[in-house]
Amino acid sequence: MKINATRQITLPLDLCKSAGIEKGDEVEIFIDKPGVISIVKKESLEKQRLQSLNELSALDQELGGIGYK
Q1: 36 forms bridges with which residues in the sheet?
Q2: Strands (DSSP E) along the chain, which ranges?
Q3: Whole-angstrom Cα distance, residue 19 to residue 35?
Q4: 41 close to 19: Cβ distance less than 8 angstroms
Q5: 20 to 30 A Cα–Cα from 15, which one of 34, 38, 40, 61?
Q6: Rounded to whole angstroms, how far apart are CA atoms 58 and 38?
Q7: What is the pLDDT of residues 10-58, one digit of tens each?
Q8: CA distance 27 to 37
Q9: Cα–Cα dist 46/68, whole Å
Q10: 47: containing domain
Q11: Cα dihedral 12, 15, 19, 20 sign
């Protein structure tokens, strides 16, 4: 894979299918460390954040309500 003159790439179809990314989907892009870029389907990221908040809320209840909401 090569980056073109305007720094664009074409994501291979098999990788998109594996990641559940389709035409028109929104993605977030992160630099994990120098030389490593991650592309995450925005919907998946939002689900992960919601799940984390739900886990914190459940833990908060177990600990007697410290206030993670």
Answers
A1: 33
A2: 27-33, 36-41
A3: 21
A4: yes
A5: 34
A6: 30
A7: 999 999 999 999 999 989 899 999 999 999 888 767 777 888 888 888 8
A8: 12
A9: 18
A10: 13-62
A11: positive
Dist CA 53 CA 69 (whole Å): 7
Q: Total domain count for the chain? A: 1
**Tokens standing for 13?**
């179809």
Residue 2 belongs to some domain of the structure: no
Please tell me the predicted confidence (pLDDT) of residue 49.
80
Q: How far apart are CA 50 and CA 5, in angstroms?
A: 38
Q: Which residues pair with 41 in a beta bridge?
A: 27
69 found inside a domain: no
Residue 52 within any structural domain of the chain? yes
Which residue has 């833990």 as its token pair?
A: 59
Sequence-distant (6+) residues with CB within 8 A of 28 are 39, 40, 42, 45
Q: What is the dihedral of CA 31, 18, 46, 36, to 10 degrees?
A: -10
